[in-house]
């Protein structure tokens, strides 16, 4: 189903407006060039929008402008609301190109008077200008409309239909407003003051009328108050003892029916024995659960003696407040017939009392309620509220003009952060960027606010970016951000590291890493990763071996110390067999095995070195090949993940609805996270007084490199002319025909003696047959 009010895909393919797109972040994004692009936004296929929804919180944008764009006030701005705003502008502005000026001043001439929305805005504009200090002005700014709005909001009649107490014309009305707020609550008006509206006034006086009408029933029916002003305390005493008195007479009637039940109805003896073992008090719950008096068949309820101590005070009060006024005589006991008579006498009152309307106005008292109803204050309040509502059009004028000015100033920037992300990819500061994090000699510009770290990390981890979640504190306030590290390496990034976060307003916050989502940062990091992992493994193994050796050494030292300390206390046993001799300090077999292993390793390294040198000019390429063979897998994995690095999940986790795959490639990532670089005109002083010398290590490395180079040159016979014949790679050869050597051993001897430059080192003779 198509979205109401929007063109279908087929309609969009035939629109006359000509759009311009650029590829940024791996996605085609529309470019807003003129006002025509804005007012024809409803013709742009929403599949080509970068975002379809955004939250109104935790974004770096004017909050009041976001409230204006959030038409349904649900805390989110969606594509239909943006389109509705652009359609409204199409009818209101004479020249939509003015939107690109992004000014907070709108001239009277910019409003289109030829459309109904434009004419309405123009009329509001004129009424607002008339109330300003310059009624002849041809333009109005956001500052001026804000000042007029604030002044209007603090006026006694400000068009919101809400009357605060200080807006009342007299003390009686002011007191009535305060009483309405105290009983039914208030509502804030334009200025933020708490007052009452017509709904609150009507609810208050309706409750007062119903309560007074309920009270009049008792005055009209004598049966409701049979004891006059003594009826209420009599009924209260009955209500307090009704359950226990009914229980007592039910038990006596059951005992009359069957005397065998009498001991049981008085509760078991075991319960009384259990009570006797406790420290009792008259109002103990265990005592209160017992009957009012001892149960006997047909026995009346005693009102003075033999009462349950937990209920004696209540029964005495009942006798005074209820029994005597109702039965007109003082009695020591109460029969079941007397009890029924008392309940019958007070039944009308209890029914009337149960019908009492529940209302908070009762706390004001019936006399005050009657005074308020008779004083005419309700009509006065209704009149004041009507006068206030008569100013509502003025308030609507202020809202309409403020809406126009804010959209005139901010819409283009919002579109460049919603329909396209040009502000982000041009690095002008997108509205979702919270600020810059400085940590580990880097600055990270891609930082977003985070409301729920655990929930955010579940989705943001799909972005394939290296994310560091930081808790930021400043002057007792705390926020959480997620920072994307897109350059450098992660060697020194860990939970607990501290940095400084600068928000978009320039405020500095203390930042501490609390969670890390690990992903590759760069190809360079991936290249060195295998070697760093190997070194870490070696360091860990060495540390483990050293720790084990230290523990063993400490154990031996402890044993030796104990032996020395207790040597004079321990006497040798003559009958004990002699101790075996201590094992040899050095295990010859172990040493031999170690020598063989080291020899094998040296042989292997020498063989590899020889093989590499034998390659001649290809030797450097062979070394490079070995290095890349080790690093290539991690580099390939990093490359694949860096290709997938995507801004979308980071924003989706914050409530955005990102419509495309917004890539963060390596060049752009390098721009978002910058590593430390010295200024071009910086002076360097390299004489470090605490320089840590590594001369031995550098000497070994230099000798190894030199040996490799010399070996390569020797294998390639480049050094032959500088070397004696015995060390040359290609030695001189004398070629003699085979026919000359056949049967002529003396000739061979002579040639050898003549050709050998050094006695004992004959030159090789090659026979040519």
Write a structural description.
The chain is an alpha+beta fold. The protein is built from 27 helices and 21 strands. An 8-stranded antiparallel beta sheet has the order 13-15-14-17-16-11-12-19. A 3-stranded antiparallel beta sheet has the order 4-3-18. Strand 16 (498-503) and strand 17 form a beta hairpin. The chain is flat, with a radius of gyration of 50 Å. The two termini are 97 Å apart.
Which structural category do the helix and sheet elements fall into? alpha+beta
Global mean pLDDT: 83
Radius of gyration: 50 Å
Q: Number of helical runs?
A: 27
Fraction of residues in H or I helices? 40-55%
Strand line-up in the sheet with most strands: 13-15-14-17-16-11-12-19
What overall form do the CA principal axes indicate? flat
Taking the alpha carbons of the first and last residues, their distance comes to 97 Å
Instruction: Count the E strands.
Output: 21
Low-confidence stretches: 1-11, 746-761, 765-769
> Main sheet, how many strands, which sense, barrel?
8 strands, antiparallel
Strand content is 5-15%
């Amino acid at each position: 189903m198509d979205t109401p009010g929007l063109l279908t895909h087929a309609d969009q393919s035939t629109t006359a407006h000509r759009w311009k797109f650029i590829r940024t972040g791996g996605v085609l994004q529309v470019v807003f060039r003129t006002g025509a692009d804005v007012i024809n936004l409803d013709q742009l296929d929403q599949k080509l929008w970068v975002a379809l929804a955004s939250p109104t919180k935790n974004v770096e944008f004017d909050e009041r402008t976001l409230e204006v764009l959030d038409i349904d006030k649900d805390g989110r701005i969606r594509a239909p609301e943006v389109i509705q705003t652009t359609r409204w502008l199409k009818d209101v502005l004479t020249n939509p190109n003015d939107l690109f000026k992004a000014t907070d001043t709108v001239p009277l001439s910019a409003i289109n008077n030829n459309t109904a929305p434009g004419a309405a805005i123009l009329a509001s504009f004129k009424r607002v200008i008339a109330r300003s200090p310059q009624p002849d002005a041809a333009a109005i700014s956001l500052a001026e409309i804000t000042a007029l709005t604030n002044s209007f909001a603090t006026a006694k009649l400000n068009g919101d239909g809400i009357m605060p107490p200080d807006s009342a014309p007299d003390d009686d009305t002011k007191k009535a407003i305060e009483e309405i707020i105290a009983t039914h609550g208030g509502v804030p008006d334009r200025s933020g003051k708490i007052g009452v509206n017509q709904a609150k006034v009507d609810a208050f006086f309706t409750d007062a009328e119903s309560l007074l009408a309920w009270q009049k029933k008792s005055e009209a029916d004598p049966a409701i108050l049979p004891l006059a002003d003594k009826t209420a305390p009599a009924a209260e005493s009955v209500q307090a003892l009704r359950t226990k008195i009914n229980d007592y007479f039910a038990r006596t009637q059951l005992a009359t029916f069957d005397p065998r039940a009498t001991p049981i109805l008085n509760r078991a003896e075991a319960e009384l024995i259990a009570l006797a073992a406790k420290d009792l008090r008259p109002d103990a719950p265990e005592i209160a659960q017992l009957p009012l008096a001892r149960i006997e068949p047909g026995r009346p309820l005693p009102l003075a003696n033999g009462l349950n101590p937990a209920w004696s005070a209540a029964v005495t009060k009942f006798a005074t407040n209820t029994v005597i006024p109702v039965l007109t005589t003082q009695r020591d006991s109460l029969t079941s017939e007397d009890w029924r008579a008392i309940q019958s006498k007070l039944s009308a009152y209890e029914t009337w009392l149960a019908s009492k309307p529940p209302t908070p106005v009762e706390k004001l008292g019936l006399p005050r309620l009657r005074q308020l109803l008779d004083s005419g204050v309700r009509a006065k309040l209704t009149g004041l509220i009507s006068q206030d509502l008569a100013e509502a059009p003025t308030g609507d004028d202020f809202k309409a003009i403020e809406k126009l000015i804010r959209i005139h100033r901010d819409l283009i920037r919002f579109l460049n952060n919603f329909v396209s992300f040009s502000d982000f990819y041009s690095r002008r500061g997108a509205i979702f960027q919270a600020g810059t994090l400085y940590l580990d000699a880097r600055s990270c510009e891609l930082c977003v606010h985070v409301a729920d770290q655990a929930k955010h990390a579940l989705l943001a981890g799909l972005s394939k970016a290296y994310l560091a979640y930081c808790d930021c504190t400043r002057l007792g306030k705390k926020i959480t951000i997620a920072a994307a590290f897109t350059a450098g390496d992660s060697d020194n990034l860990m939970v607990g590291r501290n940095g400084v976060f600068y928000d978009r307003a320039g405020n500095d916050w203390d930042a501490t890493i609390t969670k890390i989502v690990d992903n590759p940062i760069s190809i360079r990091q991936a290249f060195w990763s295998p070697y760093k992992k190997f070194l870490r493994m070696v360091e860990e193994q060495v540390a483990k071996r050293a720790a084990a050796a230290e523990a063993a050494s400490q154990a031996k030292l402890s044993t030796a110390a104990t032996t020395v300390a207790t040597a004079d206390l321990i006497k040798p046993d003559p009958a004990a067999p002699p101790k075996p001799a201590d094992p040899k300090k050095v295990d010859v077999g172990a040493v031999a095995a170690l020598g063989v292993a080291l020899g094998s390793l040296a042989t292997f390294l020498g063989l590899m070195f020889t093989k590499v040198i034998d390659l001649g000019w290809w030797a450097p390429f062979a070394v490079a090949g070995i290095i890349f063979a080790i690093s290539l897998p991690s580099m390939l994995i990093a490359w694949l993940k860096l290709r997938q690095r995507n801004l979308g999940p980071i924003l989706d986790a914050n409530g955005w609805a990102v419509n495309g795959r917004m890539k963060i490639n390596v060049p752009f990532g390098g721009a978002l996270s910058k590593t430390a670089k010295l200024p071009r005109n910086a002076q360097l002083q390299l004489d470090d007084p605490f320089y840590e010398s590594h001369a031995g290590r550098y000497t070994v490395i230099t000798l190894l490199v030199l040996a490799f180079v010399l070996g390569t040159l020797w294998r390639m016979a480049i050094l032959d002319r500088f070397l004696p014949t015995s060390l040359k790679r290609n030695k001189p050869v004398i070629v003699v025909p085979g026919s000359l050597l056949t049967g002529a051993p003396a000739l061979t001897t002579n040639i050898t003696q003549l050709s050998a430059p050094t006695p004992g080192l004959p030159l090789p003779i090659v026979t040519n047959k």
